[in-house]
Sequence to fold (271 residues):
Amino acid sequence: MIMSGGSRGIGLSIGIAAAREGANVVLLAKTDVPDPRLPGTIHTAAAEIIAAGGNALAVVGDVRDEASVENAITQAVDLFGGIDIVVNNASALDLSGTGSLPIKRFDLMQGIQLRGTYLLTTKALPYLRKSANPHILSLSPPLNLSHQWMAAHPAYTLAKYGMTLITLSIGAEQAHHGVAANCLWPETAIATAAVQNILGGDSAVASSRNPEIVADAAMQIVTRPSTECNGNTFLDVEVLRAAGITDFSGYGGKGELMLDFFVDGLSSGSA
Fold:
């Protein structure tokens, strides 16, 4: 597995879940040194993945940079012999509206979400085609075109919807090679540093589920036969219900849960 980001939050949880299945995980991220505002670096993440039972390689680089991506791909293939799974996890978040968003932040979101997803996915494709069960998984949302979401934070919406479109398009293009490409999105907000720092502090975290719910759903997707699971935009709870898991209370969240972006309402089932 090669993943963009993954130093913390959902990406790290996916890496740990994969490690428990004995996976080799390559992380491509910029977090070489600690940030006082955020927990963890790419190196602490790799250590946690190894402690969970997998192998890990931390590659410091920028998913927007072609040379960085090529370096990560080369190291992954040289060390582990190939690539079976690509996880497009890296993302930038700015909810500013049109006119108040600095163009530098616009470029950052489009660069990470769009260019980064495209770069990592396409550079890995030659190796995915050689895999027995190749999967591309992007942490991006269903394409909800309701006025509520089209009117909200257009630049961020563009970046995340673009990430979904790239993934679905490549899945359609590569289907004849047996390469699956799907998107996964949380039904509710997830208790991450972004939720803590940007979306509402402790109260927002309390009404969010834990990252493990997304990680468990991700493992369900990437272990399915790739020829039978392609071109979907999944919510985490949908995937888990299909696997027979209907009680989500173990994933945290108290009281009225906060919906994630682009989700209009809680689906039925135990919280």
